[in-house]
Structures are given as C-alpha cells and as structure tokens.
Amino acid sequence: MRKGSLDKQGKILAFAAVMEVTTGLALAIDPSLVVTWLVGMEVSGVGTAVGRCFGITLLALGLACWPDPKRAGGDATSRGMLAYNALIAFYLTFLGTVRHVGGRLLWPAIVLHAVVALLLVLTWRGKRSTRAADK
Fold this sequence. Notes:
- By secondary structure, the chain is mainly α.
- It is built from 5 helices and no strands.
- It has one domain (about 10-135).
- Helix 1 (about 10-30) packs antiparallel against helix 3, helix 1 packs antiparallel against helix 5 and helix 4 packs antiparallel against helix 5.
C-alpha cells in the first residue's frame, strides 16, 4: 500500500464516516425533517432535543472513525463502526417490520447500514487472514 493511501477497509470507513457526519449534521440542524423522512413520524418537544443529541453523537462517531492514511491498523474504529451499522440496521428493520413505521428513507437506510456492516466484516476478515498468513 502506498504511503498516504487508504486500503479497502479505510475506504469503507471513510464512506461510513462521511455518511454519519452528514446525518449527524442534518439531525443537529433539523431533527424533525430527518426523523420524518426516516421513520415517517413527527417529532417535537423533547424528541427534538433527543434528535439533536443523536445528531451530535453521529457526528462524533463519524469523526472518531475517520481513517488516517498515515496510521496502519484501524481495528478499533472498524469495530465501532461495524457495531453501530449492524445494530442500527437491526433496529431500523425492527421499526419497519414490527412497529410498522417508516418514511421514504427507512429501507434505503437499512440497506445502506447493512451493506456497510457486511463490507466491514469482509475486509476485517480479509485483513485477519492476511496477517495470519504473514506469520
């Protein structure tokens, strides 16, 4: 790998980080719009405050998982982003199938989070098998 370039896992992390930073900013600015588009429900009062808190959390997650091309590794950030994407995909699926809520972005968000989680698992497994073969 060239110095200063990202490997596959780094590119997936960068994509996921951009996705979470963007969503976090949108939630921090206008949680009602994001929630309506995602789950098809209105929010007000305390829901707006909680939505903004969630937005700040996503912004922090995205920044914390931003890959650094100068550093090797990234297993901790990959695990964090993997856990988030897998869990949010499961929860959003629960909302759509069991609670029967959903806005126009619910299913695309589920697919996007599931794909990112799957790609992180695949690249993590690939890195582990490469490291094991190098030993």
